[in-house]
Design brief:
Length: 204
């Protein structure tokens, strides 16, 4: 891992946990125990640094999604594994981070929103089609399911909703996912999902 990647990895954790708007570049340098000159060599402004954090984070998520999607599991197990992956990722994110993006860098927030929309369309759409072939998902139009899911994610997985309703981002993701899934699964699919949940709970 080179110097730039090390900076991104460490500061990504801080920004996701605390937000970025109130954090100065002096604090970033102090946190990383390096000079501001070193930071500015790779990131000429805090905005550039935030954009790089988004790219770093979304690249990591995309890679982990692909590992799940390309596995040999049935669609329900893949859905469950994706939920676990998303839950793990959102558990690291404080609503301050998302709020800072929306309020202070709306163009970066749009980039993040476009990313999650594309990920849902590509990956969830692929799993829905796989699930239909496996008789685990009912025969409903995939574009409608995707539109409902994307709309639900935008409505619930955002700082305004979680703050006003006292949810964590992880809880918002899990409840939204479960509501959508229970509406499209066949009886066979529901049994597999329930079995998968039980096994994961037993292994905790």
């Amino acid at each position: 891992m080179n110097e730039k990647e090390k900076i991104l990895e460490r500061i990504a954790e801080k920004f996701l946990r605390e937000g970025f708007f109130k954090i100065t570049m002096d604090e970033v340098a102090s946190e990383l125990k390096i000079s501001k000159k070193t930071i500015y060599k790779h990131f000429p402004s805090k905005t550039v640094l935030v954009e790089a954090v988004i790219d770093f984070y979304t690249t990591m998520i995309r890679h982990e999604f692909e590992l799940v999607i390309n596995s040999r599991e049935n669609a329900i197990v893949k859905f469950a594994n994706l939920l676990a992956l998303i839950g793990k990722a959102t558990a690291k994110i404080n609503d301050k981070w998302l709020n800072d993006l929306q309020q202070h860098l709306p163009h970066v927030w749009k980039k993040f929103d476009d990313f999650r929309t594309k990920m849902i369309n590509k990956n969830i759409g692929q799993l829905i089609e796989q699930g239909k072939k496996e008789n685990l998902i009912i025969d409903v139009p995939t574009p409608i399911v995707l539109t409902v899911y994307i709309s639900a994610v935008r409505a619930t997985v955002n700082p305004e909703f979680v703050i006003h309703n006292n949810f964590s981002l992880k809880q918002a993701v899990e409840h939204t996912f479960n509501i959508i899934m229970n509406g499209i699964l066949t009886d066979k699919g529901k049994k597999i999902l329930a079995t998968n949940k039980r096994k994961k709970n037993e292994n905790k």
